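tool_call predict_complex ligand=WQD
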Amino acid sequence: MKVLVTGGAGFIGSHCCVDLMTHDVEVVVVDDHSNSSPLALDRVAELAGRELASYAVDVRDPAALDAVFREHGFDAVIHFAARKAVGESVEMPFEYYDANVGGLLNLLRTMRAHEVGRLVFSSSCSIYGDADEVPIREETPARPASPYARTKWFCEQILADVCARDSAWSVMALRYFNPVGAHESARIGEDPRGVPNNLMPYLTQVAVGRLRELSVFGDDYPTVDGTGVRDYIHVMDVVEGHRAALERMDAPGFRSLNLGTGIGTSVLQLLAAFTQVCGRELPYRIVARRPGDVAELVAAPDRAARELDWRSRRDVLDMCRDAWRFQQRNPQGYESA
Ligand code: NAD
Ligand code: WQD
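tool_result ok
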């Protein structure tokens, strides 16, 4: 099987490439490196024990993407390439629609021209917004609350419409909850540019001394200890879900599936787990709520279990241990090399 992975140098994409390549899948990457280091792909090749073809291409570039499809005959595509910072999407909505919706449209156009119909699409729990029910099922009404979340929701609807009309397509939208952690080798991991927006990379950077203290955004939510509750999921579990999806794409049509653990963890609970693996207390301060945050987002993971025969296997301590090991061995991320 030969698979195109867009955004393959990014956090989730790089782990997905290693997982596929170590399971006899041939991988080709396109990534414009707008949010990733090309060094990640060297590490992927090293871990997989073989080379992979990669192209510094923007998925919105029709001629460049077409050239990649002409060179390779793909059986399927996994589309990670997108912009993903929620706050930034409020500041620059056009750029988010252009990259995320525009990127998908060009990809679909190119896939159709080359008669490639199987697609796994990166969706997000953020489409649910402030959900009416927790755990969140796929049927829970979407209520996207940022331009970023709306790009993912609109992409899903585009894909559903395309599949409804043409049985040549088989598409799965995987709605990830909060992917964290790193490959157990600590050679690849999460390496955000600038100050991290997300909790786990913020914690690891406090622990390694790059940041002074964690700001806990609010302790007055109606949750177990007042801090926000999320469904953190190990990135290796997420990518194993993609392999399971690829193996089950024979039927035409559009499906959306949550990828989560079904277990909620508060900010203070994650901090406690992280403290346990790193072996010392980390400085933190309770500050105001972050605008746009919700109290609790936890997946009902049953549909993926049923349809993909996939379940998460790693727990919060595994996530903290692997994230911490990557940060320790790569204190400045890939640029430490
Ligand atoms: P990431 O930023 O680490 O990876 C995305 C990759 O795509 C980067 O390497 C970037 O350089 C590349 N890219 C961006 N725009 C591109 C373009 N126009 N052309 C080519 N390459 C481009 O992000 P990630 O955390 O690995 O996320 C992967 C996907 O999963 C994204 O679609 C994201 O929206 C989605 N997602 C992520 C999370 C999360 O918390 N990390 C949660 C839910 C969904
Ligand atoms: C987790 C919890 C914060 C940082 C984001 C996107 C979502 C999806 C996953 C892409 C919350 C708290 C955080 C900090 C804190 N990504 N926090 N101090 O917001 O659940 O989800 O990533 O699709 O779309 O919105 O993740 O890691 O930012 O926050 O207290 O410095 O940690 O308030 O309760 P979030 P996060």
